[in-house]
């Protein structure tokens, strides 16, 4: 994984945690969020904000 990919995923993860109001990265839910970020990225979405929006939607958070 390139440094750019790592940075993109980290930003998407951070945005996702904020949108879900999660602050503890050690929370088991954060692990689920991380896996979902990776899954969405692999599906072709590469914009961190778009990924975070899709994560929030999958967790039932309205836009």
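-> sequence recovered:
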């Amino acid at each position: 994984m390139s440094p750019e990919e790592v940075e993109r995923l980290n930003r998407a993860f951070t945005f996702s945690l904020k949108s879900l109001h999660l602050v503890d990265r050690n929370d088991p839910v954060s692990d689920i969020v991380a896996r979902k970020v990776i899954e969405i990225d692999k599906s072709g979405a590469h914009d961190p904000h778009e990924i975070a929006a899709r994560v929030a939607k999958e967790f039932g958070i309205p836009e």
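Residues 3-58 form one domain.
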